[in-house]
Known about the structure:
Urease, subunit C, domain 1; four-stranded parallel beta sheet; nine-stranded mixed beta sheet; TIM Barrel; 19 strands; about 25% helix; globular; alpha/beta
Amino acid sequence: xxxxxxxxxxxxxxxxxxxxxxxxxxxxxxxxxxxxxxxxxxxxxxxxxxxxxxxxxxxxxxxxxxxxxxxxxxxxxxxxxxxxxxxxxxxxxxxxxxxxxxxxxxxxxxxxxxxxxxxxxxxxxxxxxxxxxxxxxxxxxxxxxxxxxxxxxxxxxxxxxxxxxxxxxxxxxxxxxxxxxxxxxxxxxxxxxxxxxxxxxxxxxxxxxxxxxxxxxxxxxxxxxxxxxxxxxxxxxxxxxxxxxxxxxxxxxxxxxxxxxxxxxxxxxxxxxxxxxxxxxxxxxxxxxxxxxxxxxxxxxxxxxxxxxxxxxxxxxxxxxxxxxxxxxxxxxxxxxxxxxxxxxxxxxxxxxxxxxxxxxxxxxxxxxxxxxxxxxxxxxxxxxxxxxxxxxxxxxxxxxxxxxxxxxxxxxxxxxxxxxxxxxxxxxxxx
Length: 432
């Protein structure tokens, strides 16, 4: 498929055309030409839109596609559709499937089933066998099969010795451990952030301390083993401070935050809407401001959607018993862009393009002549309302239906394939 993208504002920190408005011609999946003006050749799709922006294809470091085992919530095919609609050409799929991704065969299942898709799906293997937190999984075999990192997903590794050994072991084959931080002996069976709102609602709270204790412990383990570690799902002001100090000390620590954590305060739970029941829980305005500042100054490297499909039986029940999570791929950019505060657009784009791939040591797509076309098209100033018809996921556990966002995805190009959102503000698409 040949494509001509007209008058695109290019945002790509590794591209020689960064910050320029250019026409981009793609032929047979390769960026053939980038010039200030290109006349449309024959048999080409022309894409033109007001305020059209172009970046390298976005990457989400943390999605749950529920496949295998929970295909009634999501499967790899529907997850890929949701990712493409959200502007992502690459995702890292978490390990908490059923069975979990804890073997070479499980990694190969993901790789084989998604081969050739417009969205690159990178499996994350487990740290512990069967996610039990007792024995190290077959990490080396999984790495050889294509696992890009290792994590027990939202099951925090309580055994410090196990995590220490995993960090040391992963060094042997240049791999990365990703951790979720939640000291269970402190958080216990908490349902939301511990604070004024939890007290008013009579819900058991999850102290910020539960996260911060484990962030501190995991940083100490990374220092002791001299290993890289990625701390995912950070949500508190103190966690940002701890990570900033670790980086200043020269430790190999990276961090990511979920889009909802920079957008929503715990006060939204006053209506007991279980779609706001999340892990980590929504925190306070002070935490949100610290997270945004952390993104702006580079303490936080990446922003993830934390796409977590849940069926209606898991959400439309009493709040205490509802499962954690919301779908997030289709709304991720709108949510981030609408709630970025003083964070620059260029910084936001780095957190969903360059930085995630650097952390996972993946090849960086680049907007340059001769490069494979792996790009995302978007309008950062377009206002739009998220409606149920926009959902590509099998599940609809989101509180954002009817929400107005600023920042609209127009489409993606990858692997000689084009996806355009039907509601995108496209001025013209024509073939000569």
